[in-house]
Structures are given as C-alpha cells and as structure tokens.
Write a structure and sequence with these properties.
- By secondary structure, the protein is of the alpha+beta class.
- It is 38% helix and 11% strand.
- A hairpin with a 6-residue loop joins strand 2 and strand 3.
- Helix 1 crosses helix 2.
- The N and C termini lie far apart (34 Å).
Length: 66
C-alpha cells in the first residue's frame, strides 16, 4: 500500500504512522512496546502523535556513526 500525503496529520493511525516512517505495522508496534511512542486518543482506534514520531526520528543515529 502506498500512501502519499501533502501534509501529514498531527495524529496518525498505526497504518499512517508506518507509512510515515516507511516501515511496517510491526515497526510501529515495536516502537510502542519500547515506549518510544505512546498511543493517545479517546476513540476506538489508537493514534500516535506526529511529534512523538518526529522526536524518535531525530534521535536516530546516522549509519556508521557511534
């Protein structure tokens, strides 16, 4: 599935968050399990804050760096 967005929403479903990081649902589940991102919301579907995902991305190291 390919998702193309002009602007990403502030709250994302698992599917949208996976597309945002160019990953899989399993990747999102693992980030949640490691408490790198926290689900939010009061609806039936869990959502993730774009800012939390962006913070995780900012914390990634460049490949080959220590």
């Amino acid at each position: 599935m390919i998702i193309r967005m002009e602007a990403w929403p502030a709250l994302m479903t698992r599917e949208t968050a996976a597309a945002y990081i160019d990953g899989s649902l399993r990747d999102i589940d693992e980030l949640r399990h490691q408490k790198m991102i926290t689900p939010v919301g009061d609806s039936k579907r869990i959502k993730f804050r774009k800012t939390d995902i962006d913070d995780w991305i900012e914390g990634l190291r460049e490949r080959g760096s220590k």
